[in-house]
Design the sequence.
């Protein structure tokens, strides 16, 4: 009984530790003072207005959104055929092919960013949207691949064979039979891909410029030299967006990060 | 047969080409630069020798590894009981769901934002110092920013969810009937935990710890922000070489060192999880 009480206490403290910096940022973004303060001194939405009327913030927000959307779309286009190849075929080098596509998940993004900067410099692909995009596609594709792969199981293969026996072509079978069944895998993979791209710093930082900047890199550059409540407001907005994304995932594909043990 | 060959090539051509062009070849370029010299005189290991014999580099390595080991230990110590609580103790489903959301929310938020939160909390007049002063634990504000302690607090915060998720998954997979058998044979709950449950969860703990260690050692954003430029870790050194010094040879050698180290950790982790699965 005592052990349980201690564990409860520990869990509450640990969860509070996880929530604390986020609460502090949201709180600090509401302060009426000119400097960053927590607890906030008075409550105002003024800093959010400052951010919305600042063209550099708006521009980098648009860049981040466009980048994450394009990267996610390309990742889906690359991951689905790759998943079909891995799940449905036996070929030499299959394991190598799968781990090649999945490895950006675990390798340090900073190293990959450096590599793309150096290689991009050699082929003339630096400091533009395309340079940012290719890197983001590399790191987000594994998210889609990982969620689509387990959905391509044996039962579906039978349905696809049935579809083909009934005279459907390969494309018809894919769009009418396979795609609807792996849809949830694609959706949850795409959500992770979008978020991963949207919050990335380590990769983007090599190819951003004053004119072409993503929100996290811009924050990173600001925070190192000056902090004021408008930065807290931008940060708070991204926290709220993350919270909305989680609720959407919970309601659509479901949050199954920790399984039930019974 | 030929038709399916063609179909297969059609499926893998695009992802393979993309991955080679923007992942494999760039990494190979870094490796190539790391073993050549600036004057193009051919193959040399001078950059690696510089890493091996440079005292400053050793101190950076020492800080990086110390932070990695401490972060891993603290994450396991905090994370294991939290995972236990979430998997074994919480019975009220809605509360459990809220807990999982609290665990995931930081993962969905940029490292920048989370580290920025700690910059505010750990500042001279931040909440942490004010709280410690008001309860009388310290007389004057402690310096956290620009110290290893500050970076450690940030890294533990960033990486804790990974341990909780891996350990939680391991705990959920432990066969409860083994525990019931242990209890039926007269073992106390504590002895069942130490002799049955804990050993069964060890593979989860080890793989979680290895992931956290690899991520902590290669972390860039959190050390960069919480160090205030006073503490340098390996990833910060790599970034400096690439973004301000433009030394792709030495920077490349540093990047390959970081990469090799991460790969070794991942290899170790898959070895452990394969043994666990057997």
Sequence:
């Amino acid at each position: 009984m005592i052990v349980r009480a201690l564990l409860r206490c520990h869990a509450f403290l640990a969860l509070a530790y996880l929530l604390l910096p986020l609460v502090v940022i949201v709180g600090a973004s509401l302060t009426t003072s000119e400097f960053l303060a927590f607890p906030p001194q008075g409550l105002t939405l003024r800093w959010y207005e400052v951010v919305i009327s600042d063209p550099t913030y708006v521009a980098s927000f648009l860049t981040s959104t466009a980048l994450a959307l394009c990267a996610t779309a390309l990742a889906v286009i690359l991951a689905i055929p790759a998943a079909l190849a891995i799940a449905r075929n036996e070929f030499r080098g299959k394991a190598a092919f799968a781990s090649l596509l999945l490895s950006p998940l675990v390798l340090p993004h900073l190293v990959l960013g450096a590599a793309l900067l150096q290689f991009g410099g050699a082929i003339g692909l630096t400091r533009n949207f395309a340079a940012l995009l290719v890197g983001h596609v590399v790191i987000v594709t594994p998210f889609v691949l990982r969620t689509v792969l387990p959905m391509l199981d044996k039962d579906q293969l039978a349905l696809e064979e049935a579809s083909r026996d009934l005279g459907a072509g390969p494309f018809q079978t894919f769009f009418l039979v396979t795609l609807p069944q792996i849809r949830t895998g694609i959706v949850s993979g795409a959500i992770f891909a979008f978020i991963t791209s949207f919050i990335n710093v380590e990769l983007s930082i090599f190819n951003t410029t004053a004119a072409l900047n993503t929100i996290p890199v811009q924050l990173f550059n600001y925070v190192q030299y000056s902090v004021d409540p408008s930065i807290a407001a931008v940060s708070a907005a991204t926290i709220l967006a993350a919270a909305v994304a989680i609720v959407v995932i919970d309601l659509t594909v479901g949050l199954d990060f920790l399984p039930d043990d019974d | 047969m030929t038709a399916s060959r063609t179909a297969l090539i059609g499926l893998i051509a695009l992802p393979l080409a993309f991955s080679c062009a923007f992942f494999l070849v760039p990494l190979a370029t870094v490796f190539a630069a790391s073993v050549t010299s600036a004057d193009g005189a051919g193959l040399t290991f001078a950059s690696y020798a510089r890493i091996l014999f440079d005292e400053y580099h050793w101190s950076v390595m020492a800080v990086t590894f110390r932070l990695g080991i401490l972060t891993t230990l603290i994450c396991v110590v905090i994370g294991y009981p939290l995972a236990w609580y979430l998997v074994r103790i919480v019975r009220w489903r809605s509360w459990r769901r809220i807990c999982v959301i609290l665990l995931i929310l930081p993962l969905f938020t940029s490292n920048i934002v989370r580290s920025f939160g700690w910059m505010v909390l750990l500042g001279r007049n931040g909440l942490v110092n004010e709280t410690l002063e008001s309860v009388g634990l310290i007389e004057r504000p402690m310096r956290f920013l620009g110290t290893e302690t500050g970076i450690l607090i940030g890294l533990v915060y960033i990486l804790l969810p990974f341990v909780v998720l891996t350990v939680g998954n391991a705990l959920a997979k432990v066969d409860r009937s083994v525990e019931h058998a242990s209890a039926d044979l007269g073992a106390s709950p504590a002895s069942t935990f130490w002799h049955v449950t804990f050993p069964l969860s060890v593979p989860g703990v080890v793989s979680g710890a290895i992931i956290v260690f690899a991520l902590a050692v290669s972390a860039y954003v959190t050390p960069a922000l919480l160090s205030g430029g006073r503490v340098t870790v390996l990833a910060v050194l790599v970034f400096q070489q690439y973004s301000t010094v433009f030394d792709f040879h030495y920077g490349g050698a540093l990047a390959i060192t970081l990469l090799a180290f991460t790969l070794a950790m991942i290899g170790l982790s898959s070895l452990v999880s394969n043994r666990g699965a057997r």
Remarks:
- The mean pLDDT of chain B is 88.
